[in-house]
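Training component of the fellowship. As part of building independent skills, the fellow (R.M.) carried out the full modelling exercise for a liganded target. The chosen ligand was DP6. The inputs are recorded below so that the supervisory panel can assess the work.
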Amino acid sequence: MNCLVGQARAHSNIALIKYWGKIDSELHIPQNNSLSLTQDAFYTDTKVTFSNDLKEDEFYLNYDKQDKNEVDKISRFIDIFRVIAKTKLNCIVETHNSMPSAAGFGSSASAYAALTKALNDALNLNLEDRELSILARRGSGSACRSIYPGLVEWQQGNSNETSFAVPFDNADFPICTITMALSGARKKFSSRKGMQISVDTSPYYSAWKEYSKKSLDDIKKAIKDKNITKIGEIAEQNALAMHSLTITAQPSFFYFNEDTLKAINAVHNLRDQGYALHFTIDAGPNIVIICDFADANQIKELLKLEFPTKDLIISRPGPGVKSLESWNY
Ligand code: DP6
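Fellow's submitted model of the complex:
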């Protein structure tokens, strides 16, 4: 038997300036640039094995064999690599997430970034990071940012070749996040569907595009000044603007649950007491706090008083995608 194996780890990223809407939904070319922080606490490990013994592709997520629907999705993505490598071999994909899937933890970002690197290695493609970013984007837009460490900008471009992420800042200042795992349930509305409805129906969509350009300029300046409070302030406003697109869409929908609102209130109360913290929220109910690492433990303990049964996970800026020497699953 002839096997080609590749294995890689990619970390998730949390967008501080959100990607919410596409100009090309096939290629995932976005309507605006976005900027994210790669997180060290959350990652996906993926192993791919190509073999001429396999009759079809197989996909295992956290040891669970996935159904045809999921396999078909991933097969279409692997096809892009099969074309580049000029092979027809089938493949087994084994993936392990350190966080719940499809609950707004950015697991699709780390998943497609890890898969891209593992496929690159297995098929000996030797692609540069920029190519990896372009390919990861084809799986899920936000995955293009998980190729890089620290603070990363996705430059929207206007074609497959021109839409990719670039490293913006290595985040060597004490910025950190605290993810409040309020719900691990799968979301009803995927980001993909949610952003499409927002583009098509929210009367505020064009305002969002203008506004997100300004948010991006402002946050870049705050990052260069290493001003964590300012970064948090801009990220929080940007997230709320994104979520207002869902509320004003037709049909209206939202990703918050009761705990999300309770957590937003908790952040407001702590700010009133003089603590420096802000939040962002992706397409799910979980809140991600942005604060200085020096304050993180204290803020976590204070939030824990209100959410004693929930996991609160502190994350520092994380590394870019890497090949794995060993496979420990
Ligand atoms: C709210 O990257 O999951 O997290 O490209 O359709 O796969 P697809 O969408 P996805 O959307 C992420 C949306 C977001 C904001 C962000 O990460 O920028």
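The panel noted the following from the submitted structure. The first strand starts at residue 3 and ends at 17. Helices lie at 68-85, 107-122, 129-139, 191-201, 205-224, 228-247, 258-272, 293-306.
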